[in-house]
Amino acid sequence: MTAQMESGARPPGDAVETAPWVHLSRHGTEIGGEVPSGTPRGPVAAFTAAVKLAWEVRETLWVLVVRDFKSRYRAQSLGLFWSFAHPLVMMVSVTIAFRYILHVGIENFQVFYLVGAVFWQFFSNSVIATTGSMLDNAGLVKRTTFPRFLFPIATMLSHLILLSMELVLVFGFFFVFPEAYTFTSSLLAIPLLLLILMLMIVGVGFTTCGLNVRYRDIHYLTTSFITVFFWITPVLFRVDMVPPWLQPAMLVNPVGIVIESVRNIIMFGRWPNMTHVSLAGLSAVLVFFFGCAVFRRENLRIADYV
Q: CA-to-CA distance for 250 and 246, rounded, in angstroms?
């Protein structure tokens, strides 16, 4: 992530006057005096400083989250109604197509689809939104010293609010399709799965938002990738419906593992397969730190391109 994710923002305290220079070299990036010391802050120290800084500005971060959430429904007379209407309309449409026209043999398909859809929409909408988060906040990027790595995080958190509301809808359908639900202590595993998904989103967002400022084609590549990725993620099908020779490929898709695990928890009361969850968690961590590395490299140039 940084040298305040190396953000180009002014260093705190006395460093504003004594360390205005940013030095780029094969050894790394350093914020310091006019002459580089040759010992820039390492990735671990930069990451630790970023976490500390995020905690210090948490109130401002929350303001950004709320602003992003509200801006999505500005000038819409029905406001949040559309957040519930879209998954409901899709649930009805997809159920008619798959259950009554294609005769797909999945019991309680309405709930099966709804659970997968709300988590998929959280992932896809968050990734697309975080990709454009630097351009959407161009004014703040150019005119303030707010740490830039928090913009994609704020965007993801605003979509997390929407996911929380849609989960109320998911559990509310218990009173309509009670046979589709099995509530057990396995529900306690959902926050862990959600954390893995959030880590994945932030990692992808760090990668795409930094590159998108310089290469605007990244936005279109990301939306195209999301479209293809949808069809290899078990939103409309179960993993056991995939041919056996393709099923191992499903294990390298952390989003699919999260969706399948949440479905098993809500609909069947099963604890998730911890081997699969561990693989998803490892993938998410690798994507997250890869995104941090890309963002750290691109961040110093962001103000030149927004």
A: 7
